[in-house]
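note to self — DONT lose this again. spent like an hour looking for the file last time. sequence + predicted structure for the chain T wanted, 134 res
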Amino acid sequence: MNITSLAAALILSGVAQLAAAANPLSVHVLNLQDGLPSAQVEVTLEKQAGKQWVALGAGSTNADGRIPALFPEGERFDKGIYRVTFKTGAWFAARKIDSFFPEVPVLFVVDGKAAHYHIPLLISPFGFSTYRGN
């Protein structure tokens, strides 16, 4: 890699990090069975509107098991109840591993007190854990 390519890569990396930092929602999935990030986990995002859920977006975790910018660009991250659903059953099935939970829905409250919300998920074939990250 020459110096021009390296500089371009560093600039693009920095731009991507700035864009992700401006996004108010990120997720991260780590497989506790092998201690590695879980790439290619499908994730959906919804917001509660009365008794209904409104789809806002979806994505797939990257090689680091992350979606650094899950909230739709250009939309307002208003106060309310949101649901992030991790499609864990399909992820394990694709790897020919039996699992118990076909998906893991995580509901959380956006209260406007924080500019960024991070939802980490620790998974294994027969259990999961989550917490409010930062």
